[in-house]
Amino acid sequence: MSQHLTWDPLMIQRYNRAGPRYTSYPTAVEFTPATSDACERSALAADSDKPLSLYFHIPFCRHVCYYCGCNKIVTKHRDRAEAYLAELYREIDLKAALVDRSRPVEQLHLGGGTPTYLSDDQLRQLMTYVRQRFSLQDNESSDFSIEIDPRELGPDTLKTLRDLGFNRVSFGVQDLNERVQIAVNRVQPEEMIEAVMRDARALGFRSINIDLIYGLPHQTRSTFAETLERIIDMRPDRLSIFNYAHLPERFMPQRRINSEDLPDAPEKLAIFGTAITRLDQAGYQYIGMDHFALPDDELAIAQQKGKLHRNFQGYTTHGNCDLIGFGVSSISQIGSSFFQNQTDLGNWGEQLNKGLLPTMRQVSSTTDDLIRKTVIMSLLCHLTVKFDDLNTLFAIDSRSYLSRSTEQLREMEKDGLVTVTSEAISVTNAGRLMVRQVCMAFDAYRDENETRRFSKAI
């Protein structure tokens, strides 16, 4: 696999259609309402020797970021966190009682919202509670991570997290330009970011990620390039550069952003083009789907060895795990089934108080789903999938089975973005930035989803 991207803005504009990010297949829009928690209980209690990945959703934020489309609760009343944790412990008890305690937890992630909205004592209580009910593995391969708003860190929070076993952190930065920060209501000086990076390094966190967003109000190629240079100087192990999707009709906070202040489509495309070119020069490897990593980072190494996976936490080295979600709106992936918790805080707590799992939606994968998932995830992670591997896994003639999908790739094949041979389907170096569009050809639900709102790839 070539580590250098081909930047062709005209080709990207031609294929830059809206589509899923494929953190799962079927995607979350295919989940159907659950009439009870019976299916999730059965999935959790099933005999399995798979290791576990645990996700905890902490929905609270002290400030609203205008670009945000996450499931969050903006409040300065920190006592609400205590009530939330009480319900979260109830959910932990219900699910832990169903899962074989001998199954090791290889991965754990706190997301949100703002997980560090919780105090240091609350973080200690939560992790103590989790360790009492699950078998967390503390070794070199374990991956315990947390998303951090640098503005919401106490003087000892990073040390507390390190003491609790967290070895990976992700800092939400988005942009260092003050005018952009003011426009999206997320003001955090560069000195603050530099300080938390220094502290995280000194404390020995194994991997540090920084999130940036392009397409925000007042951004230009020049201003974003300045931000990127300063971030490169900080040398995070990973970088996520997300495309801002302006959907004010869906996300109320975005209505506070003046659409006239947003970069137009050509400028937005140029911003991302400038970014990937500079990151390539700086030695970052393009993992895929907006993610970059240094060559010695675990993600880059896993991709080089053909062991990279993708799930609701994005690219991961622990795709062999069953994922169990806790907290409002969280999603679990257990075996070939997916379950989403109630997205309304009141409904989530009400079901827990009744002794029920807070299941709201679910889907069980068909054989066709599993075949197409294998194709999509292989392309997203490794840019190729071999027909013989599919034949062996599913006892099918995959060339014939997927013929209607591969036929949809003919135009992209003519443009040199993908190759379809008798042996494999492969994304070329020129097509790496359009891999999401390649995957859409194998999405059996795509026609049904064309009226639903997805973000564009770039």
Automatic annotation (TrEMBL):
One of its GO terms (biological process) is protoporphyrinogen IX biosynthetic process. GO terms for molecular function: 4 iron, 4 sulfur cluster binding; coproporphyrinogen dehydrogenase activity; coproporphyrinogen oxidase activity; metal ion binding. Signal peptide: none annotated. Binds 1 [4Fe-4S] cluster. The cluster is coordinated with 3 cysteines and an exchangeable S-adenosyl-L-methionine. S-adenosyl-L-methionine 1 binds at Y55, G112, E147, I331. It comes from the Bacteria. [4Fe-4S] cluster binds at C61, C65, C68. GO terms for cellular component: cytoplasm. Its EC number is 1.3.98.3. Its main location: cytoplasm. SUPFAM superfamilies: Radical SAM enzymes. Pathway: Porphyrin-containing compound metabolism; protoporphyrin-IX biosynthesis; protoporphyrinogen-IX from coproporphyrinogen-III (AdoMet route): step 1/1. PROSITE patterns: RADICAL_SAM. Its cofactor is [4Fe-4S] cluster. Pfam families: HemN_C, Radical_SAM. It is found in: Cytoplasm. It catalyses: coproporphyrinogen III + 2 S-adenosyl-L-methionine = protoporphyrinogen IX + 2 5'-deoxyadenosine + 2 L-methionine + 2 CO2. InterPro entries: Aldolase_TIM, Coprogen_oxidase_HemN, Coproporphyrinogen-III_oxidase, Elp3/MiaA/NifB-like_rSAM, HemN_C, rSAM, rSAM_sf. Belongs to the anaerobic coproporphyrinogen-III oxidase family. NCBIfam families: hemN. This is Coproporphyrinogen-III oxidase.
